[in-house]
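Q: what sequence does this backbone want?
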């Protein structure tokens, strides 16, 4: 198992707690799942949903919102979370599904896939953000939930590490896009590669960034009712 890196300032901040999970446990709902997504703003690769059910009687320290951790720290915490939690799953919506369905429907699909992989059906969900994309069970949405809920923070780490590993595995096949570093997200080197080589088969071709690539002759299609801009 990877050793846990030395504490940094980010890890000395207040850790996420269990008060949101307890609000459901106290009503008799035993299987409460924390849910978080990664990859929504990427240009390439899947949209990924992490789902984690944490134990009621065992805490795991140093769990934080994945954005607060370095890549090495996330990798170290991944193994610890998998061993500690009661249940977990990661679901994906592929780049082509993001194009065909639109991001909202793709996010619901990836969430459905993650929940279906849990050993027991979830009875309630805690979701990072303002939007309930679960819909099938009682759900609480929490702004900055990955900094407040232990199960959401754990889900954010599992989702991020899983997706990052997947993009790194694609990097040798598409070396020009620097996927091992940018993980499919926007950055100057990624944009320069797209301008020179055009989008690959793992890029989301319905997104607005394609319009700005001089090389690309692909006609961009936007599913009805979905966003035409990258971050909307």
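A:
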């Amino acid at each position: 198992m990877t050793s846990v890196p030395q504490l940094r300032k980010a890890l000395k901040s207040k850790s996420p707690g269990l008060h949101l999970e307890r609000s459901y446990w106290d009503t008799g709902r035993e299987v409460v799942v924390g849910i978080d997504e990664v990859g929504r703003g990427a240009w390439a690769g899947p949209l990924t949903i992490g789902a984690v059910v944490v134990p009621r009687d065992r805490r795991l320290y140093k769990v934080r919102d994945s954005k607060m951790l370095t890549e090495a720290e996330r990798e170290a915490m991944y193994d610890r979370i998998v061993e500690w939690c009661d249940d977990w799953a990661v679901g994906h919506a592929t780049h082509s599904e993001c194009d065909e369905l639109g991001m909202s429907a793709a996010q619901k699909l990836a969430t459905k896939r993650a929940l279906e992989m849990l050993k027991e059906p979830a009875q309630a969900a805690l979701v990072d953000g303002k939007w309930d994309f679960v819909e099938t069970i009682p759900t609480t949405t929490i702004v900055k939930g990955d900094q407040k809920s232990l199960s959401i923070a754990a889900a954010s780490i599992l989702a991020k590490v899983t997706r990052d590993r997947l993009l790194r595995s694609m990097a040798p096949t598409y070396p020009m896009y620097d996927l091992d570093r940018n993980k499919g997200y926007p950055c100057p080197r990624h944009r320069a590669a797209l301008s020179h080589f055009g989008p690959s088969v793992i890029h989301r071709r319905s997104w607005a960034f394609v319009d700005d690539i001089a090389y690309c002759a692909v006609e961009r299609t936007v599913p009805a009712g979905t966003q035409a801009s990258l971050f909307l």
